[in-house]
Structure formats: structure tokens, C-alpha cells
Amino acid sequence: xxxxxxMLSVAKEHLIDKAKTPKGIANVEDLVLLNGQExxxxxxxxxxxxxxxxxxVKSNITHGNSLIPDIESVNDDGDQHANQKFDYMIxxxxxxxxxxxxxxxxxxxxxxxxxxxxxxxxxxxxxxLQTMIEKMKPVKDGGSxxxxxxxxxxxxxxxxxxxxxxIRRNILENDLIDTIVMVPDQMFYxxxxxxxxxxxxxxxxxxxxxxxxxxxxxDQFEKEPKSFGNKRNRITDDNRKWIDQxxxxxxxxxYCKKFHTKDFAFHKVNVVFWQEDENGKQLWITEPFDVQLxxxxxxxxxxxxxxxxxxxxxxxxxxxxxxxxxxxxFTGETAFETLVAQTLKAKVPQLKESPAKDIKAWFKKQDxxxxxxxxxxxxxxxxxxxxxxxxxxxAYINNFLAKEIDYEIIKWQEYDQLGYEILPNKYxxxxxxxxxxxxxxxxxxxxxxxxxxxxxxxxxL
Length: 461
What we know:
By secondary structure, the chain is an alpha+beta fold. It contains 14 helices and 18 strands. A hairpin with a 7-residue loop joins strand 13 and strand 14 (323-330).
């Protein structure tokens, strides 16, 4: 996704500017080799032409789809840099790219490049990121750094255990994220959305281990003299210098916050609790009994709900188009099937002299409809921030649920994996006191007076 190569060219020009001395410039010219791949033929041609015009004869710009393997079983040209490792990688992949049409080819890398997961087919951002991560040099060889620009989706889309969260989990648990920069909106011709620069490093210095810096650079822009589509803002040299200073300082302030990698983790817990009305009275529900009616299943429901009442309509074998309706109050003191047999023995004359075991056998053979009345419950998911200081996870979750849920909890079950999400806007949110109602009323009446004055002026015309 190197596009027309603008980012590559600017990156090398930046290095040349920093070199300053003739020898340094010569080293940059000789040692910095530009590599890239582009899928769109027109962009690829423009990139190749630009490299030629700038004298980048050693550049390696290839054509093809960098997200899929370049093997015989794949019809299209795939990744032409599959076995290469790079020192630095930069990318601005297309937002929300749909990769569904080459899903089968992507899945050929499911156990290697994409072993952390594949995101939904309507957004390939995390495929691009994993492709770059695979091309990072090992730490023993100095490691690699990545800068990639995304929209907000890769930061938080996907629930715990889902692919996007799992990819973030592996990236964070492998301590690859260095910094995230919150970029101003209206920076692009075709969209005005907010974007984020991800900086990754697999060889972080000691003071950055397990740490992530988030820089709020939303205000670091100036207005374009003339808008270009949705592009109304631009980042100036002073803005870039400010961002660079925040990054180099690596200190918390009004615009920068540091997080441990586990601070982005959360427990997803499935909770079942009793439902009450506004007066705190237990609510009950009547619903079909959706499993086979026997002792075992009745006892399972009893363990969950407590006392229940069963309403059973049996198609009568004695009179056509009639039912035998019985009500069974089940508390567990007597076996369920025994209770049914006792109730039938008392109600059905034909069964009055039959032993209990025969009645039970008769009951099992009959067609019947069963509903039961039990205490009503709610099943919900709670999202609980991960606490690195909590030594007893179960006690921590219990205490959290007790504070958040006012009702009696029947049971809870945590999902297999921690979820991970990064929410920069939340971290920098500043609460603003709403305008007092008296002030709003006063402003309203002022507007009313102004409107009345205007109406009077119109009437006098």
C-alpha cells in the first residue's frame, strides 16, 4: 500500500535534511534503500516513475497485493517482499478496505502471518499491520520500527475473544506498541474523520518496557488557506516539532498520558441475576419448558430458579380432542416424576389403581405441552477493567459486580481471554458542568423578548 510513493520520498528527504554534512548525506543516499508494494496499477506506475525521476535506481517498488501470498495456488500477484525484513516501515493503508474477495488467499497465511487472527472482511487495517509486523527484524538484529496511520476502528472494534480484540491483545502482550498520536480531523481530501498514528517498536528501551504513550495532538494544526474537499486542516512544521518534543520527553502532561499495556485490558463476564420490579419485588415469568421433561432436567432448573410450578397439558388417550391438565408445584422435596405420578393418580380415574412406576411410563409416552412458572432472570455481559494489583481475580470480579449490579446475582462466568481496547478520546475527556437551568431559562426569555421585538417591527411596516 505504498500508493504513489510520496511517503517514501518524503521520508528519505527528511533523513537527508537531518544528515547535514556531505558525508552524512552520502551515507543516506547509499544506505537507505526504498521498498514498497502497490496494488492499484495506476498508482504503481506513478510511484515507479517518481522513483526514476528522483534517481532512486536501487529502489524496489513492486506490483501486487501485499496481503496475500505470492504462490502458484493464488491467481493474483501476492506479497513480493514476503521473506524480507526492514528497519523502518511507514504506511497509510486505505481506511475500511474490503478484503472479502480474496478471503481464501488471506486464509492461506492463517497459521503464519495472521496467526493472531483475521479481522472482519469489511476492514483490512489489521491485516496491513500484521503484514508489517511480520517484516520486523528480530531484536538480535536491532529490531524494527513501524509508523502507520489508521482511522479509529482498529483501536476498539471487536469484542473480547473476537478477532480484532485478539490481534490487539497479542500486539500489546508482545509489547509492540510504543506510542499512539491522536491526529486532527479534516486532514484528508476524501474524509474528515479523526485519525491515529500508531508507532510500533519491537526493541523498546528499558524505560518504555510495557508502556504506551498516547499523545493528544488534536489541536496541532492550522487551517488551509483553501479547502480541498474534506481537507481543511494541515499540520505545520511547528506542529510536527511539538509532537516530536512530546514523544522525546516521554512524560505525562495535559496532552500526554502513559499507560501500562495491561491498562487496556478488560474482563468480559457473563452474569445471570434476578429481575425485580421498581418496588424490589421478585418478578416471575411463564415460558415453555424447552427440554425433555424428566427428573434430571427438572432438577437442573430447580438449581437455577428455586421453586417452580409446572403446567402440563396431556393429550387425553381416553377422550378425543380433550386434554388432561395438571399443575405440579416442584420444590425438590419429592422427586419430580413422583410428583407427576401422584398428581395424575389423583386426577385421572383410569390411573387411580395403577402403581407409580406404570403411571410414570404412561406419562412418558403421551403427547404433552409443558410451560412452567419461575423467578425471572436477566443474562447480561459486564465489562470490568483489568486490575494489575488484584491478587485474587475472583474476589475482584465479585466486588466489582456487587457494586455495579443491585440485584442478587445467580452466577457469573468469565470469557476465556481478556479483551483489549484503546480509547484515546476517553482518556482525554474533560467533564464540563452543564449550564444551570436558571441560566437557560433566563436566556430563553431573552430570546423570546428579541423575537417579540422583531415581530412588532414587522407589524409596524
